[in-house]
Amino acid sequence: xxxxxxxxxxxxxxxxxxxxxxLLLATTIIALVWANSAFSESYxxxxxxxxxxxxxxxxxKKPLILWVNDGLMAIFFFLIGLxxxxxxxxxxxxxxxxxxxxxxxxxxxxxxxxxxxxxxNQNPETLKGWGIPMATDIAFSLAILKxxxxxxxxxxxxxxxxxxxxxxxxxVLVIAIFYSSSLNFVLLGAAFVLLAIIYFLSYxxxxxxxxxxxxxxxxxxxxxxAGLHPTLAGILMxxxxxxxxxxxxxxxxxxxxxIVGEIKESTILxxxxxxxKQLELIDDLEDWADDYRSPLQHLEHKLHNWVxxxxxxxxxxxxAGVAINSEGGLETALIxxxxxxxxxxxxxxxxxxxFLARKFKIIEVPKDITNKQIIGVSFLAGIGFTMAIFIxxxxxxxxxxxxDSAKIGILIGxxxxxxxxxxxxxxxxxxxxxxxxxxx
Length: 440
Hints:
The chain is 71% helix and 2% strand. The protein has helices at 2-35, 40-48, 64-89, 96-120, 138-148, 154-178, 185-203, 209-226, 231-238, 249-265, 276-292, 295-319, 332-359, 371-380, 385-395, 400-427; strands at 50-54, 59-63.
């Protein structure tokens, strides 16, 4: 019973990510069909349409695709930041023993693909795309594990999620260091001063949702104008959200019983409205509930559906529409390089490093995870998609032909990785071996 309660939130997360993967696939197909149809010009013109504010002293005007990549994706990165902080504080990465297994997987999944990219790259202009094969798309990969059902243990899903989160953290650092333009240190300094104030308030136990939203927008804008990629504001703001509750469960239940008792004893009006006393008690209940729930958990819960069903699908619709017959021509070598990195780099890197680390007793692999399952999930890690396309748009922002080539490499590499990973896990694992259903 206790195990069921502990695993239930993660199982809900897996279900949500699986649904996101299906929606991502649908929007990707729509984008590809749209970009290669008779209406292809409308696809390009729609996402290049400029919106914004222009005054004598201030200008914030961008094409729609940049509002998506710089604006909406900041919300995605904010959620990633919340997940990273939660995992490190109270989740699957909160101890040395827990973190070592996914950490070594992530290290292999980052270093080997990058090295292969650099070795295979022959064009100096495409060298800056080395960060593309680093990260794993959690939504797509978990969607495939969801399809496999009880052929894979829950611990394998936890492992995939954990190392994908570490991958994302590595990708964020790469974006911050290597994919930001020339910096305005005055504006950057102002942003970090504001962040320091928010961090201090959080440390003192003071958290105000409205202040966080306003401060987050200001930091995002300062990063944008300073030359640091604005999505990083989402990550840094997420780290400022406190995870702790202000009151304990015992204190909350005592207050809840007291408020329920007072509501029962209060005057009940004959109209479909509350009495002044009942309104006051409901306000008290809301205040106690705000103090009881974790701000980080509350925000993560509220944002998951928005990111899963709006932000990521819009990102896919805006970025996955690659014109196969690109007028500027395609860089075949870049396409092949990215495919190799995603298909072989990820699988070889993750599985090899994990096997070596286990051989030297540096890590401990859960007993219900087999070598074949590690190999299978290593191939699933080659599904780069969201973060890979995002990094490609940063690396080749002034070279449309390279962006299209990179996206084609990402799409094909992710598809092949998904198929191989699915086949390995589907035919190398006995159905029904891992039953995750609650025991009576």
